[in-house]
Amino acid sequence: MPNLWYKNAIVYCVDVEKFMDASGDGTGDFAGLADRLDHLERLGVTCIWLNPFFPSPNRDNGYDITDYYGVDPRYGTLGDFVEFMHAARDRGMRVIIDLVVNHTSTDHPWFQAARSDENSPFRDWYVWSKEKPENAHEGMVFPGVQDSIWSYDRTAKAWYLHRFYDHQADLNTANPAVREEILKIMGFWLALGVSGFRLDAVPFLIDTKGMKLEPGSFDPYSLLTEMHDFMAWRRAGAVLLAEANIPYSDAPAYFDGGDRMNMIFDFMLNQHLFLSLARGTAAPLRHTLQNRPRPDGLGQWANFLRNHDELDLGRLSIAEREEAFAALGPDASMQIYERGLRRRLAPMLEGDMSRLKLAYSLLFALPGTPVLWYGEEIGMGENLALPEREAVRTPMQWADEPNAGFSRAATANLIQPILADGDFGYQNVNVAQQVREPGSLLRSITRLVQTRRSTPEIGWGEWELVDVGRDDVLALSYSWRGARVVTVHNFSPEPVSFPLEIDGIDRFEPLLADHDAQSAILRGETLDMAGFGFCWLRCDGPRK
Ligand code: NOJ
């Protein structure tokens, strides 16, 4: 039997340097993260995803690596990593880590060797061109900040490919030595106990742009199969989670029936979910779910609201994106890369608790595995004074204490300013206060997590859309091993009432809702929902 733990997992993404500073030098570290695992345990997290923590000049938040086999000294030692792994395992939490092998930092010794000697074995580890390629100014991932995907290197006397910033040179994955090294990196971290990888930038990793290849000599997807096979041999139950903002038509090749990716982040659903929130109707989300490929038994979509990057709305039409911008981030300072918003969820929804709770209930109710970004559980805000995506990466707000309880360093020495003052400043938004407050977002999300964990129908079961005859409401039904659950979400600010009638169900028992008092509903009885209300119901009736 395959181990499908990831289908009912609660994934929580942490940036070590921003979470908790135990050493007191102003930067978060592994010892601090280990100290704060109690918070994640209380929340109900089952899997921690670590953003890159490897040695790096940190010009792209660690996604620019100079050594794949170590821990950046600012976060501790490899020994501290192992201690953290032990502490997480003690609490029954798995750990997955970012695997960033589309590119290395240009400071990486491999690139340094490649650029300085044409005959170096590392030369062919990267993608070069003697002439400036014609398409050099097309296909940038960070338009407005990056103006080319090829840069000239004076030492190499050649152009190198970089789909991201010019300090991130793309690796030549057609080179067998590069592929072997990728597997070795995986083997190293698997040996230290990780349960898999969030694979960075997969569409670019399997792109053959600029590579000198004989037609038909190389199938880029084979890299994904190799990686998956290797991982499964080394560690049963480990997973590959793809960061791939792809059209749905590409998804089957990424999953390949469970032989390549176990999970893919559903960027398509994410963007339409935000359009739904902006419009106050479930229609875009419902339409997207209807078109979403259903991975076979081994595959799973990963759902998220926000992450460490911008909210990318590039797959909406121009008019839809404008609509979302107007509702969620109207100021030019909130927008980025001609397609996205560098905002956290709570300020986007103007701190409106009913909308926030609706959004998180949805996250846990959508078919797939939910992924949280640290700080979401308390509704942290963004700092638009910081450059680019740094806006959404401010230090964790633990308490209304100096430096928000993140660090005892002098404030001037912090890795990044703490969000202070205003509605989302640490004085108003912090863990300590929300632990105490019964109606807090933290308490609501904790309850959602617990309910989701005890509702395996959602992660493991089959799902279908339920037509309740209204555009503003999303109703989903899930069944697994003869048990059935229904969730209902009202996207509109207005209360709604409608009869709840689903074939084969006699009675709906309340599991969870936006309000406490709720009684069972019999077949055909009216369901009354508040504006932005939601409810999860367990169904009784003849079993299928
Ligand atoms: C995707 C990551 O999520 C992003 O933060 C990073 O800048 C790029 N990949 C490049 O690694």
UniProtKB/TrEMBL annotation:
It holds the Pfam family Alpha-amylase. This is Maltose alpha-D-glucosyltransferase/ alpha-amylase. Keywords: Transferase. GO terms for molecular function: transferase activity. SUPFAM superfamilies: (Trans)glycosidases (SSF51445), Glycosyl hydrolase domain (SSF51011). It comes from the Bacteria. InterPro entries: GH, GH13_cat_dom, O16G_dom_2. Residues 13-408 form the Glycosyl hydrolase family 13 catalytic domain. Transmembrane segments: none annotated. GO terms for biological process: carbohydrate metabolic process.
